[in-house]
């Protein structure tokens, strides 16, 4: 079972225990295939050295400290989902370090001495481009030097898809373009949104396509507006579905409406309101569009539903 330990630099880093760690370090937003390679290398090292596999991540994203408004980067993987994935990978301990000005001001040497050495770290694994310390002045070569033999280091080279590095930035761009299928290929799993089903305007029910409505968190990325084939999980049961994400332009003024996720869940009967649900985004069907009549919208929704069924039938 994953143990989560939160650390705040201004409160000091305690000596956790006599346990020694093989530590993968990084922000790891998305936990994509590149991140998984780094973490798996740390796990392999932990087995060789007979010590515990651990991950160190940071919260919130650095952009939330240094940027404002639209400069803040939305999360691909919220913290709870990150914890679930790491637990499934076999990580023993997760250190969550608060990213604030106190952390940002630490020199590379201070970070190594005041954080890593105090945590009984015996090996550090990170991506080749990982930086640390004030203004990112520390790199993995400097990490090796600053360790002074107290811990070993491993720098993991670029993990690519085609000729391009797999990165969180690339995945954010794919989601902004609505390419959830390619996103899944880079993540090694479908992109996922988690939320509470809320009471909607019942318009889908009136059209003959009742929907489960979720309001996405403003801090977490959602795909580009449009219609998607999805899988919808509630109470541990997974259903196929077709999802519209957007502002319902046929009914609402786009500049005033709030973005919502609406899922027509196939073969489901019952009340979903107030329940936590998971949407796994499988493939993009079409962009969001405004229709000139309700009948045209109804016909298009029926067509979208059949398209989604064909896409999901191919998914193993």
From TrEMBL:
Protein family per UniProt: Belongs to the ribF family.
Keywords linked to the UniProt accession: ATP-binding, FAD, Flavoprotein, FMN, Kinase, Multifunctional enzyme, Nucleotide-binding, Nucleotidyltransferase, Transferase
Single GO MF descriptor: FMN adenylyltransferase activity
Riboflavin kinase domain mapped to chain residues: 186-313
Protein name: Riboflavin biosynthesis protein
SUPFAM superfamilies the UniProt entry points to: Nucleotidylyl transferase, Riboflavin kinase-like
Keyword Transferase: yes
Source organism, top-level taxon: Bacteria
UniProt-listed Enzyme Commission number(s): 2.7.1.26, 2.7.7.2
Pfam families in UniProt: FAD_syn, Flavokinase
Pathway connected to this protein: Cofactor biosynthesis; FAD biosynthesis; FAD from FMN: step 1/1; Cofactor biosynthesis; FMN biosynthesis; FMN from riboflavin (ATP route): step 1/1
Originating organism: Sporosarcina gallistercoris
The reaction(s) this protein catalyses: riboflavin + ATP = FMN + ADP + H(+); FMN + ATP + H(+) = FAD + diphosphate
CDD domains (alphabetical): FAD_synthetase_N
């Amino acid at each position: 079972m994953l143990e989560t330990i939160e650390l705040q630099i201004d409160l000091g880093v305690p000596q956790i225990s006599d346990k020694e760690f093989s530590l993968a370090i990084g922000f790891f937003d998305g936990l994509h295939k590149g991140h998984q390679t780094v973490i798996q290398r740390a796990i392999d090292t932990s087995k060789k050295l007979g010590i515990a596999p651990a991950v160190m991540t940071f919260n919130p994203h650095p952009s939330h400290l240094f940027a404002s408004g639209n400069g803040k980067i939305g999360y691909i993987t919220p913290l709870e989902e990150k914890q679930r994935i790491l637990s499934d990978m076999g990580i023993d301990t997760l250190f969550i370090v608060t990213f604030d000005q106190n952390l940002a001001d630490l020199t590379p040497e201070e970070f190594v001495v005041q954080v890593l050495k105090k945590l009984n770290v015996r090996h550090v694994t990170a991506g080749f481009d990982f930086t640390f310390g004030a203004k990112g002045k520390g790199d993995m070569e400097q990490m090796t030097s600053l360790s002074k033999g107290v811990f070993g280091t491993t720098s993991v080279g670029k993990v690519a898809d085609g000729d391009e590095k797999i990165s969180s930035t690339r995945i954010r761009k794919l989601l902004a373009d609505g390419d959830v299928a390619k996103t899944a290929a880079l993540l090694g799993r479908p992109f996922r949104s988690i939320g509470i089903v809320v009471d909607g305007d019942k318009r889908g029910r009136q059209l003959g396509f009742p929907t489960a409505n979720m309001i996405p968190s403003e801090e977490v990325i959602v795909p580009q507006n449009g219609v998607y084939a999805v899988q919808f999980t509630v109470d541990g049961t997974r259903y196929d579905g077709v999802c519209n994400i957007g502002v319902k332009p046929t009914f609402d003024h786009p500049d005033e409406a709030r973005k919502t996720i609406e899922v027509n869940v196939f073969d489901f009967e019952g009340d979903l309101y107030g329940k936590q649900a998971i949407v796994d985004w499988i493939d993009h069907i079409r962009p969001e569009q405004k229709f000139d009549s309700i009948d045209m919208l109804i016909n298009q929704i029926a067509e979208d539903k059949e398209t989604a069924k064909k896409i999901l039938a191919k998914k193993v």
